[in-house]
Amino acid sequence: MTIEASEAASTAAVRFLGARKAYWWLLARGALLLMVTLGIYRFWLNTDVRRFLWANTEIDGECLEYNGTPIELLIGFLAAVAILIPVYAGFFIAALDLGTLGEMSGLLGIALLGLAGQYAIYRARSYRLTRTVYRGLRFHQTGSAAVYALRAILWWTVTAATIGLAYPFQLASLERYKMRHTYYGDLPGRFAGAGWRLFLRGLPLWLLLVAPLALAVSALLEMVDWAALGDALSAETEDAMARIAETNPDLPTAIVFAILMVVGSIALALLLLPAYRAIMLRWWLSGLRFGDVTLTSRLLMRRVYGAYLRFLGLALLFTVALGVGSIPVLWIAGALTAGGDSSIAAEAAAALVLLGGYVTAALGYSTLYRATVGYALWQLSTESLHLSGVTVLEQVKAQGQPSSALGEGLADTLRVSGY
Amino acid sequence: MTTTDIPAPTSGPGVFFDGRTSARHDVTVTLGANGLQIADGTGRTLADWPYDAIEELNAPAQVLRLGRRHDSVLARLEVLDEAFADAIDIRAEGIDRTGAIHRRQRSHVIGWTILATVALVAVSYWAIPAIADRVGQAVPAAVERRLGDAVNMQVRSQLDTHQAGAAFDCGTGAHEQPGRAALDKMIKRLESGAALGMPLRAGVVRRPEANAIALPGGQIYVFQGLIDKADNPDEVAGVIAHEIGHVAHRDNTKSMLQGAGLSFLFGMLLGDFVGGGAVVVAAKAVLQSTYSRESETAADRYGAGLMKKVQGDPQALGAMLAKIGGATEPGMKILLDHPDTKARVAAISRIAADGPTIPFLDPAEWAALKRICAG
């Protein structure tokens, strides 16, 4: 066998087999049931979504399998509640008991919840991996969720201190930790993506967003006499505004300029969001390794933009539909509370109608987003993948045990859950 | 052998993974009397699965993926041939490709979660205030006192407008001392009737609103605006008696417990979906106003009763409320934390004095109280 032939034989493609319609139906039904059950249905919906996405992802001719169940997620959630109740109760008591501990309990609480969130993210990943089966073997994850949480918090601190410049290195470092503890059977994973590559690709985006903000700050520093402003504000006199106008004639101009710059930065951020997602996904996917198996992604940025545009279009249509649909809703609410002296029951009914309208709108937009952008990102990611070195996939041995859904439950209660 | 006219396949092709390695086996599956026999190309049997141990697993629409139920080894058999998949489906009970079992489960889930939601709403409407009542009474006075000190600091920093040259508390200046004495006399009489078990601390503060508030642990603030608006000492005493009602009922502690209970029930168990945050906020607001309206009614009843007990005028509270409540308040009733003023006044008017009433202050003392914030 020649070298070329053996190389050709060891490459594989990834296909996505899903039917968009089926996914839409799943999400629409799920949104309705979420509303009726005030959110308890989420365990079933999330499981359905994963079953759909996993089963329709075909790698080298074999589809993934998701074998987690909604009941597991429900139990994980209840376990998380059981753990968090005493913690929350402790904070509540500490807050009442306003000693030194009490004063610190707010800060301490935020730090602890941040740690717990990262811990949950790692454990939830472990749950999802061990519920992912490919060719009769499950994935699994070793490593310590606590260590990961500490690293993540330290990295977030560094990233915040560098106004986001360290973010690519944070991602690379955390992803390396996750992937070197990830296994498919006994095939160890690793992450080969380099932080500086993402840094170079992301730098133009960062500059575009930060430049207007920097301009705003420098304008405020240059044009405003801060000492005089402080004096004017601290003096408790009626004519503080007059004194400010007198000592700081440029203040209004500076404020208007700063606001414009901030608005510009936000608008740019929205425009660049698809580009950012595309760059990130492509970098991340191309860094994944399992033994000799190398992943490469050719994700096209314009297709990600296409997905976002689709969402925008549908969201506009939905907004029009909402506008038309809200006329009878508002009419009913108005009729119920008409006449100034309506009863409490009528008011409650009107409030329910309005609340129902609001929830419909919010769930509608989120469903549209999941069905367009969420779906497209999965589809585009999988279809952009190219695998090489897949011959090792023939002789992987089983390893690893299923892990509990506690992490999913914690992530759910702490509101940090992902897919 | 089949007895139908169209012979269903009794064997067919499949792909098998033994769950120990990832190696792919092209196999022939034979439908036996009690189970599936899975054999490779050489005829060697790789697995023998009884029909009643087979379960259907997550797979794309065109693939029937099977495994053994409750098996830690994840052996998988995949069948692509439609007709052969149907033949397996007929024999194995655990396979349900029409989704009927799934749908039944789903409707169970929906039914029970709706019931659970109804139960939760009922609990939050009736059980939370009841529990808060019991727990609130059990909170030791020392804890409530400490809580009160903390709240006191916050309230003072929020209310104090730092009027130039004037202290927040009235009754401290030399000209204000007689007013302070008059207030103390009034408080002493009310306190003797209340038998609270903890000392009251009452004072007048420089705030323009016609209002009074009670904090946990027995601190009561009467606002200057209220003194200005009162026409006689009994009106001031009536409002203070109402606030003493809040202290006696420990309403502050209770409402804190109620808030925590609601946050837990709604924030933690429910509502983790987009738009759910609004449901939680709305439900909390409506329920807490309901609790608050109930405790205001109870404090009115207590206040009028206390006035009657110390031979003051029970109706004075009603008169004062009518004066400061004015016409119907704007906004939605379900969000008001006080009941309708008309209803309050009507309820208070039902509590009448037994005999002649004794004024709280003589005219000189009343004039002094009116000047308690004169500076």
Explained architecture:
The complex is a heterodimer of chains A (419) and B (375). Chain A is α+β, with helices and mostly antiparallel strands and 419 residues long. Chain A has helices at 3-9, 20-36, 42-55, 70-96, 100-130, 145-161, 167-180, 195-223, 226-234, 240-247, 251-286, 301-336, 344-383, 406-413; strands spanning 11-16, 57-59, 62-63, 65-66, 132-134, 137-141, 182-184, 187-191, 288-290, 293-297, 385-388. Chain A has an 11-stranded antiparallel β-sheet. In chain A, helix 6 packs antiparallel against helix 7. The longest helix of chain A is centred in the last third of the chain and has 40 residues, at 344-383. Chain A is globular, with a radius of gyration of 26 Å. The two termini of chain A are 43 Å apart. Residues 1-5 of chain A have low confidence and may be disordered. Chain B has 375 residues and is of the alpha+beta class. Chain B has a 7-stranded antiparallel β-sheet, with helices on one face. In chain B, strand 6 (64-68) and strand 7 form a beta hairpin. In chain B, helix 4 packs across helix 6, helix 7 packs antiparallel against helix 8 and helix 9 (315-325) packs antiparallel against helix 10 (341-349). Chains A and B meet through helix 2, helix 3, strand 3, strand 4 and helix 4 of A and helix 2, helix 3, helix 7 and helix 8 of B.
Strand content of chain A: 5-15%
What is the makeup of the main sheet of chain A? 11 strands, antiparallel
The arrangement of helices and strands of chain B along the chain is EEEEEEEHHHHEEEHHHHHHH
Number of strands of chain B: 10
Write the layout of secondary structure elements.
The complex is a heterodimer of chains A (419) and B (375).
Chain A (H helix, E strand, L loop, with lengths): L2 H7 L1 E6 L3 H17 L5 H14 L1 E3 L2 E2 L1 E2 L3 H27 L3 H31 L1 E3 L2 E5 L3 H17 L5 H14 L1 E3 L2 E5 L3 H29 L2 H9 L5 H8 L3 H36 L1 E3 L2 E5 L3 H36 L7 H40 L1 E4 L17 H8 L6
Antiparallel strand pairs in A: 1-2, 1-11, 2-3, 4-5, 5-6, 6-7, 7-8, 8-9, 9-10, 10-11
Chain B lengths: L10 E7 L7 E7 L3 E5 L5 E6 L3 E4 L6 E5 L7 E4 L2 H10 L8 H39 L2 H19 L17 H18 L6 E5 L6 E4 L3 E5 H6 L3 H17 L1 H19 L6 H34 L5 H11 L15 H9 L13 H8 L5
